[in-house]
Automatic annotation (TrEMBL):
<dbReference type="InterPro" id="IPR016181">
    <property type="entry name" value="Acyl_CoA_acyltransferase"/>
</dbReference>
<keyword id="KW-0012">Acyltransferase</keyword>
<dbReference type="GO" id="GO:0046027">
    <property type="term" value="F:phospholipid:diacylglycerol acyltransferase activity"/>
</dbReference>
<dbReference type="InterPro" id="IPR000182">
    <property type="entry name" value="GNAT_dom"/>
</dbReference>
<feature type="domain" description="N-acetyltransferase">
    <location>
        <begin position="5"/>
        <end position="158"/>
    </location>
</feature>
<keyword id="KW-0808">Transferase</keyword>
<dbReference type="Pfam" id="PF00583">
    <property type="entry name" value="Acetyltransf_1"/>
</dbReference>
<protein>
    <submittedName>
        <fullName>Phospholipiddiacylglycerol acyltransferase</fullName>
        <ecNumber>2.3.1.158</ecNumber>
    </submittedName>
</protein>
Length: 219
């Protein structure tokens, strides 16, 4: 029986280890992009990924040693529901012992993007990953005949609520309305840049006053 994994958030110190895992020949063969990755490019990407609020990277440890990584990428669809893309990678030495299922099962409840569909892109020939995700409740969508299959796990009623749906809808509306405000701003500067700048200075001044008052609440 596979031991229960312990999850933790990834840190910058995990970058070199994850690069070694990613450039392992078997990992590359199963990857959507099988090309090897250079150290500099990987570490730059990894630092940005850790700082990205739309990404979550978890490290799974077994007996205190890193054995796998699960990544969640939030994709915000304009005017529609959000999607969370899931990917998993095992340490080469951890393959073949049945660790993938427990690691994925432990990671999904730890995903901070709750109540949204989970999706995974997997190569058609990657039987191990397809079996892993199907066992976790993911289902394949329509087969378009390409080499990449998309599997989806819809949120259960315990993972979502009417509040999540309303908040997602508000988020989508605010996104559209922000563009409307930017269009007004462009129009104002196009036709009367000096007057527009004066109004913007007043807005900035009042916003700063609000920020200063809000800062007092945290003192």
């Amino acid at each position: 029986m596979s031991p229960a994994p312990r999850l933790r958030a990834a840190t910058l110190g995990d970058g070199p280890v994850l690069l070694d895992w990613r450039n392992d020949p078997l990992t590359r063969a199963a990857s959507l992009d099988p090309r090897p990755i250079g150290r500099g490019a990987h570490l730059s990407w990894f630092a940005a990924a850790l700082a990205d609020p739309a990404r979550q990277i978890l490290i799974a440890e077994l007996a205190g040693d890193p054995a796998g990584m699960v990544r969640f990428d939030l994709e915000k669809a304009r005017g529609g529901p959000c999607t969370v893309w899931v990917s998993i990678m095992l340490a080469p030495r951890a393959r073949g012992f049945g660790h993938g299922g427990p690691i994925l099962a432990a990671a999904m409840p730890a995903c901070r993007f709750r109540g949204k569909p989970l999706r995974a892109r997997i190569r058609r020939g990657n039987a191990a990953s397809l079996s892993l995700f199907r066992a976790a409740g993911f289902e394949a969508g329509p087969d378009d005949g390409t080499d990449i299959l998309t599997l989806t796990k819809e949120p259960t009623m315990t993972e979502t609520s009417k509040y999540d749906a309303i908040i997602d809808e508000i988020e989508a509306v605010r996104s559209r309305n922000n563009k409307n405000w930017m269009d007004i701003l462009r129009l104002a500067f196009r036709h009367s840049p000096q007057d527009a700048a004066a109004i913007l200075r007043e807005i900035y001044k009042e916003d700063k006053a609000i920020s200063d008052l809000a800062a007092k609440l945290t003192e």
